[in-house]
Amino acid sequence: MFLALYTSCVIICVGLLIYSIVFQIINKRLQVMLCTECRQCMAVCPLLSKGCNPMEIMLGAKIDQLDQVMGQGGALCVSCKKCQKACPRGLAPFEEVEKWKNLNLE
Fold it and tell me: Any idea what DSSP says for residue 47?
């Protein structure tokens, strides 16, 4: 009985994880999932003092609260690409900002 319950819980958790990954890939947010929040992008952002935080942009995109992050200064991003150069994985927070801007212009 306990083994069946444990097995079903594991299967449900793995299923939810797979669903989450597939959902992110379909919505072209794979880079958001790959962000390890190492904060290296923050060290090079020229607009960090004005409220533009590349790590917060990635976090906001990861938890579907990008609108809130953009309101707090993320929209100031000028796509200088310094964050992408500093990122050990080559991720680009400015691309999330561009997607957000394009969605809000339509």
Answer: T
Q: Where are the domains of the chain?
A: 30-105
Structure token pair of residue 83: 């964050």
- pTM for the full model? 0.71
pLDDT digits (tens, 9 = 90+) for 26-66: 766 778 888 898 999 999 999 999 989 999 999 888 888 88
Structure tokens at 26: 């379909």
**Token output for 59:** 């976090």
In Å, what is the CA distance from 16 to each residue of 6, 10, 19?
A: 15, 10, 5
Query: Mean pLDDT across the chain, nearest whole number?
Result: 88
Three-state secondary structure call for residue 78: coil
What is the chain's alpha carbon radius of gyration, rounded to the nearest angstrom? Answer: 17
Nearest to 73 by CA among 38, 47, 92, 91: 47
